[in-house]
Amino acid sequence: MRKIFKTKCILMFLVTIHVFYPANIMQLWTIVTRYRCPHRNTFHDSKVISQALQDFTTSDAKYKLPEDDDSCEVRSMGCFQSLPKLFVPDVVSIRLTPNRCFNFCNEIGMLYASLYNGQTCYCGENFLGVALLTMSQDCKIKCSGDGFKYCGGKQSSQVYMITNCNKVMKNEILEGCLVRTKNDLFNQEEPLDKDDCIKICGKAGFTVAVPAKKCVCGYRQNVKTNSKGQACVRGTPYRTLAPDSKCDNKTLLPAGTNPPIALASFPGSGNTWFRQMIETATGVYTGSVYDEELIFAHGFIGERLPADSGKTVVIKDHVLHSLDAFKYKSAILLIRDPYDAILAEYNRFRTLGHVASVSDEMLKSRDFHLFVNRKATTWKNTYSKIIRRVPRLLPVYFEDSVKDAVTQIRRILDFLPESSFIHGPDLETRLQCLEVDVHSKFKRPKRSLIFDPFSQDLKRKINDNIRGLRQELERVNISTMPKYERQGVEKKFGGKSSDRGQRNRQLQKIRINAKDKNGA
Length: 520
What we know:
By secondary structure, the chain is α+β, with helices and mostly antiparallel strands. Helix content is 38%, strand content 15%. The protein folds into four domains: 59 residues; 92 residues; 70 residues, no CATH class; 243 residues, Rossmann fold (3-Layer(aba) Sandwich). The protein has 16 helices and 20 strands. Strand 15, helix 8 and strand 16 form a beta-alpha-beta unit.
């Protein structure tokens, strides 16, 4: 009897919903499965019907964005077997596309969007449950509204962070040229202007557009900086807003897979830049001993994991305490010219950001002088703690990476354990992506100063610490450190004379020479 009543209730529900909004049976079934008939009066409850209709029309009628609306810039957070319960609502659509989900989540004020089972869009305000999630490789179900794109898996969710929506297209120019491949898409009609070409390529899922005589679409890994002997598309390659599944997808390792490997550096040495390059090359998230909201918000989800989880490929550490070094058996020493590193750290310290810079006036202030005086020794001690306590070391110099980042990342990959990242054909594809994306958002733009902010006293102290670190490295048979010492004197510092120490040393030297001559 109960089964008959339930069947009757469902049929009446279907008929009523269909009267309000004609749709196919699969759409209606989706609503029915969410709104059961627990008792006879439920069907006649106008609130229940209203809620069902509202949910249903939100799915495909009320929420009706243009199909070509690709105005959201997103960052892939990865594919997960499950989602935190904070991700709501579950909007089901037979015409779901990634862009519709991104725009919907942005419209209701959510920062994260998740695509599930090809036709479901979830939205989330935060991603705090990341440490409890299990990564998946199963987000391969085509979107119900676009058979060329993927919208999660049967039991998996592809999560994106929405970084910007309804924005003016940034038209980011990529270095190099787009090499012709059989997968290029040519627009055979009249030539398109730049913005239309970029938009069309992005809507089609391509990550690169070349507005030339014909609009050519391609993929980021086919943009080469060294294309000798290869046929290139004539024109400037632009990055579209389409998510790049070939380059951006990353995963977490199973718990306990990787032993703690330090990415050790003095602050301001490009640690965040290197983390992004390592993640792109390995396809595995990096970790950190810190919990920086800004870093996490830009897609570094390993930032929230325990440092000893074993789920990340390397762990960012500035080694603030000597005992911190004991937990590592291997460490990558990311070393930068201390003059540049300390200046970068001062910029970060005073601007509270990773890419902004302070004014020239601040670099001439006593505050800067005291900061450098204190940090010169800290620069050396950061590496000394690791060198004395960690048996396996790989020095990587920032300046070498600026010249040839891919070569330095290959050195890091050779240093890492086999289990710490995915090998095979995808590795070379990711390295090709890295070659195009080597200039990160987290790398502070180079700034040319018309004055030298370092006084002679500061240079003496920094140079002494450079020599001290070089000696430490040579004790463990590392003799590759560049000559970072700087010469020359800045006679004015903060508006006051700072050459008194130089005069005293010169007078002392004259006295010593005179004494030696008299003794002779």
